[in-house]
Amino acid sequence: MKLVYTHENTAIVQNAKNLLENNGIKVILKNEFASGGAGDLVPAETWPEVYVLNKHDYTRAVELVSALSNKANEPDWFCESCKEPNGAMFESCWNCQAVPVS
Ligand SMILES: [Zn+2]
Questions:
Q1: What pLDDT is stored for residue 56 in this prediction?
Q2: 97: how many CB neighbours lie within 10 A of its CB?
Q3: 2-71, what's its fold?
Q4: CA 55 – ligand 1 centroid, Å
Q5: Ligand 1 mean position to 85 CA, how many Å?
Q6: pLDDT in tens, 55-72
Q7: CA dist., res. 89 & res. 67, Å (int)
Q8: Is the pTM of this model over 0.70?
Q9: Mean of the pLDDT values across residues 82-93?
Q10: Could you give the CA distance from residue 4 to residue 62 in angstroms, rounded to a whole number?
Q11: How far is ligand 1, taken at its centre, from the CA of residue 35, in Å?
């Protein structure tokens, strides 16, 4: 088992986990419920963490997750249904789960 991704924002970590699972990589999430609400300062050791179960998936997992991180620098998109801004790495609205019309 190898740590592939960690971030203070649970939603972003969850998104990374989903991306890896969608690519057929077995992962587990740790510290999922350890972090506080938005705005709380949380020590790094309690950040949610994504681990790959099979070490031969590790290199591919890192590539997928780094592509995701690059996407995080792209502009936000606004949800068609609830008008909430979403980070570019989110494939569906964090608030209402609507998928953007592209
Ligand atoms: Zn929405």
A1: 96
A2: 10
A3: Alpha-Beta Plaits (3.30.70)
A4: 36
A5: 8
A6: 999 999 999 999 887 777
A7: 9
A8: no
A9: 88
A10: 6
A11: 23
* Boundaries of every domain in the chain: 2-71, 75-102
- The CA 95 to ligand 1 mean position distance, Å, reads 5
Q: How far apart are CA 16 and CA 81, in angstroms?
A: 24
Distance from the alpha carbon of residue 101 to the mean position of ligand 1, in angstroms: 12
DSSP class of residue 12?
Answer: H
- pLDDT tens digit sequence for 21-55: 999 999 999 988 765 555 555 555 688 999 999 99
Q: How far is the CA of 77 from the centre of ligand 1 (A)?
A: 10
Cα(78) to centroid(ligand 1), Å: 8
Count Cβ atoms within 10 A of the Cβ of residue 100 and give its class: 0-12 exposed, 13-18 middle, 19 or more buried. Answer: middle
Q: Regarding predicted confidence, which is higher, 36 or 86?
A: 86
